[in-house]
Write a structure and sequence with these properties.
Number of helices: 4
Distance between the termini: 40 Å
Oligomer: single chain
Helix content: 25-40%
Structural class: alpha+beta
């Protein structure tokens, strides 16, 4: 099991996240891809996983609705998969969300992306439903996970 150092990074590191994304996913994207998604979002969280001071993975999330955290992206370079880096990124993101008052986490994963589906289930997420994604032309599996008690309801 890897023991990656997980670091919170600001929007100034969007270029690094973009570069890691482009090594993990296709098609390649530009920085505007992230800027568009984060526009007018609250509580944006970007994490980088380092092994031996080398960035090997990333995680991005933001407030979906008050009290609900959205785990948007998790990616690990191919050479560093299968050693627990993605799990560490997920755990760090969910811990941060819980510490900041979010009581539910949500994520969506393409039904075609089997490693992502397995990761979500291994992190304790439950399937809440599916929806069709017109952009990718495939089903998205919608997951949810309780992080803590709702306060003031």
């Amino acid at each position: 099991m890897a023991n990656a150092e997980i670091n919170l990074v600001g929007v100034s590191e969007t270029g690094l996240i973009r570069d890691l994304y482009n090594e993990v996913f296709q098609p390649r994207v530009e920085t505007e891809f992230f800027e568009h998604r984060f526009h007018e979002r609250s509580a944006i969280l970007n994490l980088i996983a380092d092994l031996d001071r080398r960035p090997v993975g990333f995680s991005c999330g933001y407030e979906y609705q008050p009290g609900i955290w959205f785990c948007w992206l998790v990616g690990v370079l191919p050479a560093f998969r299968g050693i627990g880096v993605a799990s560490q990124l997920f755990e760090a993101q969910l811990a941060w969300a819980g510490e900041h008052g979010y009581y539910t986490a949500r994520l969506e994963c393409s039904n075609e992306h089997r490693p992502g589906l397995s990761l979500a289930l291994s992190q304790g997420f439950k399937i809440n439903g599916i929806c069709w994604d017109d952009e990718t032309h495939c089903n998205l599996v919608i997951f949810g996970k309780e992080l803590g008690q709702r306060v003031g309801r």
